[in-house]
Amino acid sequence: MSLATNTPMRESMGFMDAPTDMQQVPSSSFVVEGWVLYPQGAADSLEVHIDDRAAQCRIDRLVRPDVARVYPELAAANSHAGFRARVYAAELPNGTHRVACVARNGPASKVVCQTVIEVRSKFREVIAERFLYGSGLEIGALHGPLPVPDGCSVKYVDRYDVAGLRAQYPELGHAHLVPVDIIDDGETLKAIAPASQDFIIGNHLLEHLQNPIGSLERYMEVLKPGGVLYMAVPDKRRTFDINRPVTSLDHLYRDYREGPAGSYMEHVREWVQCVQRKAGAAVEQGMRWIVEKNYSIHFHVWTPAALLEMLVDIRRRLSFPFDIEAFVVHPQELETILVLRRQP
Predict the structure, then answer these.
(1) Which residues does 186 contact at the CB level (< 8 Å), separation at least 6?
(2) Distance (Å, whole) CA 336 – CA 202
(3) Count of alpha carbons within 13 Å of 297, Cβ hemisphere only?
(4) In the chain, domain spans
(5) Does domain 13-119 have CATH number 3.40.50.1220?
(6) What are the 10-residue block averages of pLDDT along the chain, 344 residues in total?
(7) What is the pTM of this model?
(8) Which CATH number applies to 124-238+296-342?
(9) What phi and psi values does residue 293 have, to the nearest 5 degrees?
(10) Taking the CB of the first residue and of the last residue of the chain, which one, N or C, has fewer CB atoms within 10 A?
């Protein structure tokens, strides 16, 4: 759908908190958030546009007490002035792109806020070229599989087939999803034989694992001696997890020893309150939706320092058989790339 602004909406206004002007964003996905106010109340629809075309994404409307305090005369008619959407940008070429929030009321439309982003060059592939070889797995690739060096072969693992993944993630719209070769639980890889893989790729996977220490242990079992685990892990300070506390080592070890079931609802509540910013009765409603849909949230979050601390601690305390081959934090990236090699 092309952007149409020839019929303006009267006096609507807004602001885009993220991304900021000329911010470099990852080529996989990024978050668009801000607020919009309308004199007569909410518009019929709100859209995110990239380069004058509507992006396929789900937009969550949020309560914004800070905006209500500044514009009290409009607060009653705009109880959910905030918005947040995750935009999948795997098909965007490197370079600058215009991001706009467009409000529509019937045939009327208006750009209420906009910014310009820069899609950064991909450095995941550079590290992959250095460390990946042979045959292996990628878990949860969805629409953004990692390009691997020539000569490598990859089988894609996910918990649903492509149709099931589209039902689980409608915000992916018409994005191309890689075919799922193996339907399995990416946390346990029960269908995969021990010592059978040269590599395992899990980009933006670790935060979705309910028992990350247990999964790391299992991945080491599945790798051949000398095989590598390649992961990209988001920095919680630069994503929608910014308001969440870093997951403590004590919590991670408790999930490892006792299983993650006891902390599941704690994670879901934190997600609804801190990421979706819901309050009151809306919290319980949001939690029910996640539980019933079995939606995969970020169960744990790290900064690069906390991530490195976890890796060093579990290697020391639990004698996991891996060496840290690479730990790369790009100064303008939202993620850390880590490569762990299974010891002989």
Answers:
(1) 139, 140, 157, 158, 159, 202, 205, 209, 215
(2) 12
(3) 27
(4) 13-119, 124-238+296-342
(5) no
(6) 37 86 76 88 80 87 92 88 86 79 83 85 83 97 89 96 90 81 97 98 96 98 98 91 95 96 96 93 94 93 97 96 93 82 94
(7) 0.69
(8) 3.40.50.150
(9) -85, -10
(10) C
Q: Output Rg (C-alpha) for the chain, integer angstroms.
A: 21
The answer to whether the beta carbons of residues 263 and 256 sit under 8 Å apart is no
Do 57 and 171 contact (CB within 8 A), yes or no? Answer: yes
Nearest 5°: phi and psi at 65? -60, -30
Q: What is the DSSP string of 286-308?
A: HHHHHHHHT---------HHHHH
CA distances from residue 129 to 125, 151, 249 in whole angstroms, order as listed: 6, 11, 32
* Dist CA 76 CA 80 (whole Å): 10
- Distance separating alpha carbons of residues 4 and 222, to the nearest angstrom: 53
Reported as type and span, the H/E element at residue 213 is helix 212-222
Work out the number of other CB atoms within 10 angstroms of the CB of residue 170: 10
> Do 124-238+296-342 and 13-119 have the same topology in CATH?
no
